[in-house]
Amino acid sequence: MSEQSDPSFPSYPSSNGDPSAPATILIVDDLPDNLAVLGDILLPQYRVLAASTGERALRLAAAQPPPDLILLDVMMPGMDGYQVLARLQADEHTRDIPVIFVTAMNGVEDEERGLEQGAADYIAKPLRPRIVLARVHTQLALKRAGDLLRERNASLEAEVQRRLGENQVIQDVSIHALARLAEVRDNETGNHLRRTQGYVSTLARRLREQPRFAGELTERTLDLLAKSALLHDIGKVGIPDHILRKPGPLTAAEREVMKTHAKLGSDAIEQAERDALRPVAFLTLAKDIAHYHHEQWDGSGYPEGLVGEAIPLAARLMALADVFDALISRRVYKEPFPLETARDLIREASGRQFDPTLVEVFLDGFDEIAAIANRYRDG
Predict the structure, then answer these.
(1) Shared-domain flag, residues 47 and 192
(2) pLDDT (tens digit per residue) in 288-312
Protein backbone atom coordinates (compact mmCIF):
# COMPACT_ATOMS: atom_id res chain seq x y z
CA MET A 1 0.00 0.00 0.00
CA SER A 2 1.35 3.39 -0.90
CA GLU A 3 2.12 5.89 1.80
CA GLN A 4 -0.72 8.21 0.81
CA SER A 5 -3.36 5.48 1.23
CA ASP A 6 -2.09 4.48 4.65
CA PRO A 7 -5.13 3.54 6.83
CA SER A 8 -3.77 5.77 9.59
CA PHE A 9 -5.19 8.63 7.49
CA PRO A 10 -8.82 7.57 6.93
CA SER A 11 -11.03 9.58 4.61
CA TYR A 12 -12.78 12.35 6.50
CA PRO A 13 -16.49 12.92 5.81
CA SER A 14 -17.63 16.08 4.11
CA SER A 15 -19.39 18.69 6.22
CA ASN A 16 -21.52 19.62 3.18
CA GLY A 17 -24.37 17.57 1.84
CA ASP A 18 -24.11 13.80 2.28
CA PRO A 19 -22.22 13.13 5.54
CA SER A 20 -21.11 9.73 4.16
CA ALA A 21 -19.33 11.36 1.22
CA PRO A 22 -15.60 12.11 1.47
CA ALA A 23 -14.54 15.67 2.16
CA THR A 24 -13.91 17.92 -0.83
CA ILE A 25 -10.53 19.60 -1.03
CA LEU A 26 -9.73 22.40 -3.45
CA ILE A 27 -6.07 22.52 -4.49
CA VAL A 28 -4.77 25.72 -6.07
CA ASP A 29 -1.42 25.99 -7.88
CA ASP A 30 -0.35 27.50 -11.16
CA LEU A 31 1.93 24.53 -11.98
CA PRO A 32 0.23 21.38 -13.34
CA ASP A 33 2.93 19.13 -11.85
CA ASN A 34 2.22 20.45 -8.36
CA LEU A 35 -1.50 19.89 -8.86
CA ALA A 36 -0.80 16.34 -9.95
CA VAL A 37 1.37 15.60 -6.92
CA LEU A 38 -1.24 16.93 -4.50
CA GLY A 39 -3.97 15.05 -6.34
CA ASP A 40 -2.06 11.78 -6.05
CA ILE A 41 -1.64 12.31 -2.31
CA LEU A 42 -5.26 13.24 -1.62
CA LEU A 43 -7.40 11.29 -4.10
CA PRO A 44 -7.40 7.94 -2.29
CA GLN A 45 -9.16 9.56 0.68
CA TYR A 46 -10.81 12.74 -0.58
CA ARG A 47 -12.68 14.31 -3.46
CA VAL A 48 -10.34 16.78 -5.13
CA LEU A 49 -11.03 19.95 -7.14
CA ALA A 50 -8.17 21.77 -8.88
CA ALA A 51 -7.62 25.37 -9.94
CA SER A 52 -4.57 26.89 -11.62
CA THR A 53 -5.47 30.54 -10.99
CA GLY A 54 -6.76 32.59 -8.08
CA GLU A 55 -9.83 33.65 -10.05
CA ARG A 56 -10.77 30.05 -10.80
CA ALA A 57 -10.19 29.11 -7.17
CA LEU A 58 -12.60 31.81 -5.98
CA ARG A 59 -15.31 30.57 -8.36
CA LEU A 60 -14.93 26.97 -7.17
CA ALA A 61 -14.89 28.06 -3.53
CA ALA A 62 -18.15 29.99 -4.00
CA ALA A 63 -19.91 27.01 -5.63
CA GLN A 64 -22.48 24.95 -3.76
CA PRO A 65 -21.62 22.93 -1.86
CA PRO A 66 -18.33 24.69 -1.09
CA PRO A 67 -15.10 22.76 -0.54
CA ASP A 68 -14.31 21.66 2.99
CA LEU A 69 -10.66 22.73 2.78
CA ILE A 70 -8.40 24.68 0.42
CA LEU A 71 -4.70 23.97 -0.18
CA LEU A 72 -3.45 27.23 -1.64
CA ASP A 73 -0.14 28.02 -3.31
CA VAL A 74 1.27 31.42 -2.35
CA MET A 75 3.40 32.39 -5.35
CA MET A 76 1.11 32.53 -8.38
CA PRO A 77 1.02 34.97 -11.31
CA GLY A 78 -1.76 37.54 -11.25
CA MET A 79 -3.60 37.00 -8.00
CA ASP A 80 -1.28 35.45 -5.43
CA GLY A 81 -2.25 33.28 -2.49
CA TYR A 82 -2.43 36.15 -0.01
CA GLN A 83 -4.87 38.00 -2.26
CA VAL A 84 -6.97 34.90 -2.76
CA LEU A 85 -7.13 34.36 1.01
CA ALA A 86 -8.18 37.99 1.55
CA ARG A 87 -10.99 37.58 -0.99
CA LEU A 88 -12.14 34.34 0.61
CA GLN A 89 -12.27 35.92 4.04
CA ALA A 90 -14.17 38.95 2.76
CA ASP A 91 -17.01 36.78 1.43
CA GLU A 92 -19.48 35.50 4.04
CA HIS A 93 -20.04 32.37 1.94
CA THR A 94 -16.36 31.36 1.95
CA ARG A 95 -14.86 32.92 5.08
CA ASP A 96 -15.30 29.74 7.14
CA ILE A 97 -13.42 27.46 4.70
CA PRO A 98 -10.03 26.66 6.26
CA VAL A 99 -7.01 27.42 4.06
CA ILE A 100 -3.61 25.75 4.24
CA PHE A 101 -0.84 27.58 2.44
CA VAL A 102 1.37 25.26 0.36
CA THR A 103 4.55 26.98 -0.80
CA ALA A 104 8.26 26.75 -1.40
CA MET A 105 8.63 29.90 0.69
CA ASN A 106 9.72 28.20 3.89
CA GLY A 107 11.20 31.08 5.85
CA VAL A 108 9.90 31.80 9.34
CA GLU A 109 8.76 35.26 8.23
CA ASP A 110 6.77 33.74 5.35
CA GLU A 111 5.05 31.27 7.66
CA GLU A 112 4.24 34.02 10.20
CA ARG A 113 2.79 36.22 7.49
CA GLY A 114 0.53 33.45 6.24
CA LEU A 115 -0.76 32.60 9.70
CA GLU A 116 -1.25 36.26 10.62
CA GLN A 117 -3.39 36.75 7.53
CA GLY A 118 -5.70 33.94 8.58
CA ALA A 119 -4.33 30.74 7.11
CA ALA A 120 -5.15 27.67 9.21
CA ASP A 121 -1.77 26.01 8.56
CA TYR A 122 1.35 26.21 6.44
CA ILE A 123 3.01 23.35 4.49
CA ALA A 124 6.41 23.86 2.92
CA LYS A 125 7.53 22.25 -0.33
CA PRO A 126 8.82 19.73 -1.23
CA LEU A 127 5.71 17.90 -0.12
CA ARG A 128 5.86 14.87 2.16
CA PRO A 129 2.65 12.86 1.77
CA ARG A 130 2.22 11.81 5.40
CA ILE A 131 2.65 15.40 6.63
CA VAL A 132 0.18 16.65 4.03
CA LEU A 133 -2.39 14.03 5.00
CA ALA A 134 -1.88 14.60 8.72
CA ARG A 135 -2.40 18.34 8.46
CA VAL A 136 -5.32 17.97 6.09
CA HIS A 137 -6.95 15.50 8.48
CA THR A 138 -6.39 17.82 11.44
CA GLN A 139 -7.94 20.83 9.72
CA LEU A 140 -10.93 18.83 8.51
CA ALA A 141 -11.48 17.52 12.03
CA LEU A 142 -11.35 21.06 13.41
CA LYS A 143 -13.73 22.31 10.75
CA ARG A 144 -16.17 19.49 11.39
CA ALA A 145 -16.08 20.23 15.12
CA GLY A 146 -16.69 23.91 14.42
CA ASP A 147 -19.57 23.10 12.05
CA LEU A 148 -21.17 20.82 14.63
CA LEU A 149 -20.82 23.51 17.29
CA ARG A 150 -22.43 26.12 15.03
CA GLU A 151 -25.27 23.72 14.18
CA ARG A 152 -25.81 22.97 17.84
CA ASN A 153 -25.77 26.67 18.72
CA ALA A 154 -28.24 27.40 15.92
CA SER A 155 -30.52 24.65 17.21
CA LEU A 156 -30.28 25.97 20.75
CA GLU A 157 -30.98 29.51 19.56
CA ALA A 158 -34.04 28.30 17.65
CA GLU A 159 -35.29 26.52 20.78
CA VAL A 160 -34.67 29.63 22.90
CA GLN A 161 -36.59 31.77 20.42
CA ARG A 162 -39.44 29.25 20.36
CA ARG A 163 -39.70 29.28 24.13
CA LEU A 164 -39.44 33.05 24.28
CA GLY A 165 -42.25 33.22 21.76
CA GLU A 166 -44.38 30.93 23.89
CA ASN A 167 -43.61 32.99 26.99
CA GLN A 168 -44.49 36.17 25.10
CA VAL A 169 -47.85 34.75 24.08
CA ILE A 170 -48.55 33.70 27.67
CA GLN A 171 -47.57 37.15 28.92
CA ASP A 172 -49.72 38.93 26.35
CA VAL A 173 -52.73 36.75 27.09
CA SER A 174 -52.27 37.31 30.82
CA ILE A 175 -52.09 41.08 30.36
CA HIS A 176 -55.26 41.11 28.29
CA ALA A 177 -57.04 38.88 30.79
CA LEU A 178 -56.17 41.22 33.67
CA ALA A 179 -57.17 44.27 31.66
CA ARG A 180 -60.48 42.64 30.68
CA LEU A 181 -61.14 41.90 34.34
CA ALA A 182 -61.15 45.61 35.08
CA GLU A 183 -63.13 46.34 31.93
CA VAL A 184 -65.84 43.80 32.74
CA ARG A 185 -66.40 45.39 36.14
CA ASP A 186 -66.79 48.83 34.54
CA ASN A 187 -69.60 48.32 32.06
CA GLU A 188 -69.10 51.68 30.36
CA THR A 189 -65.60 51.16 28.97
CA GLY A 190 -66.42 49.27 25.76
CA ASN A 191 -63.44 49.51 23.43
CA HIS A 192 -61.69 51.93 25.75
CA LEU A 193 -58.65 49.65 26.13
CA ARG A 194 -58.09 49.30 22.39
CA ARG A 195 -58.49 53.00 21.79
CA THR A 196 -56.27 54.22 24.60
CA GLN A 197 -53.60 51.67 23.70
CA GLY A 198 -53.68 53.01 20.14
CA TYR A 199 -53.51 56.63 21.28
CA VAL A 200 -50.54 55.98 23.56
CA SER A 201 -48.65 54.09 20.84
CA THR A 202 -49.32 56.84 18.30
CA LEU A 203 -48.31 59.66 20.63
CA ALA A 204 -45.13 57.87 21.75
CA ARG A 205 -44.09 57.04 18.20
CA ARG A 206 -44.56 60.64 17.10
CA LEU A 207 -42.87 61.98 20.21
CA ARG A 208 -39.82 59.86 19.43
CA GLU A 209 -39.23 61.99 16.35
CA GLN A 210 -38.09 64.76 18.68
CA PRO A 211 -34.37 64.31 19.46
CA ARG A 212 -34.68 64.71 23.23
CA PHE A 213 -37.08 61.76 23.43
CA ALA A 214 -35.44 59.48 20.85
CA GLY A 215 -33.14 57.80 23.37
CA GLU A 216 -35.91 57.12 25.87
CA LEU A 217 -38.52 55.91 23.40
CA THR A 218 -36.78 52.97 21.78
CA GLU A 219 -38.66 50.35 19.75
CA ARG A 220 -38.68 48.09 22.77
CA THR A 221 -40.04 50.88 24.98
CA LEU A 222 -42.81 51.57 22.46
CA ASP A 223 -43.78 47.91 22.59
CA LEU A 224 -43.74 47.89 26.39
CA LEU A 225 -45.81 51.08 26.53
CA ALA A 226 -48.50 49.52 24.36
CA LYS A 227 -48.71 46.50 26.67
CA SER A 228 -48.55 48.54 29.86
CA ALA A 229 -51.29 50.91 28.75
CA LEU A 230 -53.80 48.08 28.97
CA LEU A 231 -53.33 47.90 32.74
CA HIS A 232 -53.85 51.59 33.51
CA ASP A 233 -57.18 50.99 35.28
CA ILE A 234 -56.44 47.58 36.79
CA GLY A 235 -56.92 49.13 40.24
CA LYS A 236 -60.65 49.51 39.55
CA VAL A 237 -60.97 45.85 40.47
CA GLY A 238 -60.64 47.01 44.07
CA ILE A 239 -63.39 49.65 43.90
CA PRO A 240 -66.78 48.65 45.35
CA ASP A 241 -69.50 47.98 42.79
CA HIS A 242 -71.88 50.58 44.25
CA ILE A 243 -69.33 53.24 43.35
CA LEU A 244 -67.73 51.79 40.21
CA ARG A 245 -71.06 50.94 38.58
CA LYS A 246 -73.11 53.81 39.93
CA PRO A 247 -75.46 55.07 37.19
CA GLY A 248 -74.79 58.74 37.78
CA PRO A 249 -72.31 61.31 39.08
CA LEU A 250 -70.32 60.38 42.17
CA THR A 251 -70.52 62.22 45.45
CA ALA A 252 -67.40 63.89 46.81
CA ALA A 253 -66.83 60.96 49.18
CA GLU A 254 -67.34 58.45 46.39
CA ARG A 255 -64.89 60.33 44.20
CA GLU A 256 -62.25 60.01 46.92
CA VAL A 257 -62.81 56.27 47.01
CA MET A 258 -62.64 56.11 43.21
CA LYS A 259 -59.31 57.93 43.28
CA THR A 260 -57.79 55.08 45.24
CA HIS A 261 -57.87 52.90 42.13
CA ALA A 262 -54.58 54.49 41.03
CA LYS A 263 -52.68 53.31 44.09
CA LEU A 264 -54.55 50.01 44.24
CA GLY A 265 -53.38 49.30 40.69
CA SER A 266 -49.76 50.25 41.29
CA ASP A 267 -49.68 48.28 44.55
CA ALA A 268 -50.95 45.17 42.77
CA ILE A 269 -48.35 45.53 40.03
CA GLU A 270 -45.62 46.15 42.58
CA GLN A 271 -46.59 42.92 44.32
CA ALA A 272 -46.38 41.13 40.98
CA GLU A 273 -42.87 42.56 40.56
CA ARG A 274 -41.86 41.19 43.95
CA ASP A 275 -43.31 37.79 43.09
CA ALA A 276 -41.46 37.59 39.76
CA LEU A 277 -38.26 35.54 39.69
CA ARG A 278 -36.52 38.28 37.70
CA PRO A 279 -37.27 41.89 36.65
CA VAL A 280 -40.10 42.24 34.11
CA ALA A 281 -39.61 45.46 32.15
CA PHE A 282 -43.21 46.14 31.23
CA LEU A 283 -44.32 45.96 34.86
CA THR A 284 -42.18 49.01 35.69
CA LEU A 285 -43.97 51.07 33.05
CA ALA A 286 -47.33 49.56 33.96
CA LYS A 287 -46.83 50.55 37.60
CA ASP A 288 -45.98 54.15 36.64
CA ILE A 289 -48.98 54.35 34.35
CA ALA A 290 -51.41 52.88 36.87
CA HIS A 291 -50.15 55.07 39.72
CA TYR A 292 -49.65 58.42 37.97
CA HIS A 293 -52.04 58.61 35.00
CA HIS A 294 -54.31 60.98 36.89
CA GLU A 295 -51.53 63.42 37.75
CA GLN A 296 -51.77 66.83 36.06
CA TRP A 297 -49.04 69.01 34.62
CA ASP A 298 -49.73 71.88 37.05
CA GLY A 299 -49.68 69.63 40.13
CA SER A 300 -53.45 69.54 40.72
CA GLY A 301 -53.82 65.83 40.01
CA TYR A 302 -53.68 62.75 42.22
CA PRO A 303 -52.51 60.67 44.04
CA GLU A 304 -49.15 62.46 44.59
CA GLY A 305 -49.75 65.94 43.16
CA LEU A 306 -46.63 65.73 40.98
CA VAL A 307 -45.74 68.68 38.76
CA GLY A 308 -44.46 68.78 35.17
CA GLU A 309 -41.74 66.35 34.19
CA ALA A 310 -41.71 64.85 37.67
CA ILE A 311 -44.66 62.86 36.32
CA PRO A 312 -43.25 59.81 34.47
CA LEU A 313 -43.48 60.15 30.69
CA ALA A 314 -45.50 56.95 30.35
CA ALA A 315 -48.10 58.34 32.75
CA ARG A 316 -48.22 61.71 30.94
CA LEU A 317 -48.93 59.89 27.69
CA MET A 318 -51.64 57.81 29.33
CA ALA A 319 -53.22 60.83 31.00
CA LEU A 320 -53.84 62.58 27.71
CA ALA A 321 -55.04 59.40 26.01
CA ASP A 322 -57.38 58.53 28.88
CA VAL A 323 -59.00 61.96 29.13
CA PHE A 324 -59.46 62.29 25.38
CA ASP A 325 -61.20 58.93 25.28
CA ALA A 326 -63.39 59.83 28.24
CA LEU A 327 -64.46 63.01 26.42
CA ILE A 328 -65.56 61.16 23.27
CA SER A 329 -67.26 58.28 25.18
CA ARG A 330 -70.87 58.07 26.26
CA ARG A 331 -71.60 58.01 29.97
CA VAL A 332 -74.93 57.73 31.80
CA TYR A 333 -74.45 61.31 32.92
CA LYS A 334 -73.23 62.77 29.60
CA GLU A 335 -73.31 62.40 25.84
CA PRO A 336 -70.05 61.87 23.93
CA PHE A 337 -68.30 65.00 22.65
CA PRO A 338 -67.55 65.19 18.93
CA LEU A 339 -63.91 64.42 18.13
CA GLU A 340 -63.16 68.01 17.18
CA THR A 341 -64.67 69.34 20.41
CA ALA A 342 -62.62 66.90 22.46
CA ARG A 343 -59.52 67.97 20.52
CA ASP A 344 -60.17 71.62 21.35
CA LEU A 345 -60.67 70.80 25.04
CA ILE A 346 -57.32 69.01 25.10
CA ARG A 347 -55.70 72.04 23.46
CA GLU A 348 -57.20 74.36 26.08
CA ALA A 349 -55.80 72.18 28.91
CA SER A 350 -52.25 72.37 27.57
CA GLY A 351 -49.81 73.47 30.27
CA ARG A 352 -52.44 73.04 32.94
CA GLN A 353 -53.66 69.46 32.83
CA PHE A 354 -51.36 68.09 30.12
CA ASP A 355 -47.71 68.27 29.08
CA PRO A 356 -47.61 71.02 26.39
CA THR A 357 -45.20 69.01 24.25
CA LEU A 358 -47.55 66.05 24.23
CA VAL A 359 -50.47 68.28 23.35
CA GLU A 360 -48.54 69.56 20.33
CA VAL A 361 -47.81 65.99 19.27
CA PHE A 362 -51.47 65.09 19.79
CA LEU A 363 -52.65 67.99 17.64
CA ASP A 364 -50.14 67.25 14.90
CA GLY A 365 -51.23 63.63 14.78
CA PHE A 366 -54.92 64.21 15.36
CA ASP A 367 -56.00 62.60 12.10
CA GLU A 368 -54.34 59.37 13.17
CA ILE A 369 -55.84 59.64 16.66
CA ALA A 370 -59.29 60.21 15.16
CA ALA A 371 -58.88 57.18 12.90
CA ILE A 372 -58.20 55.00 15.95
CA ALA A 373 -61.25 56.43 17.72
CA ASN A 374 -63.47 55.67 14.71
CA ARG A 375 -62.01 52.19 14.18
CA TYR A 376 -62.88 51.12 17.72
CA ARG A 377 -66.01 53.17 18.19
CA ASP A 378 -68.42 51.79 20.81
CA GLY A 379 -71.50 50.05 19.50
Answers:
(1) no
(2) 999 999 999 999 999 999 999 999 9
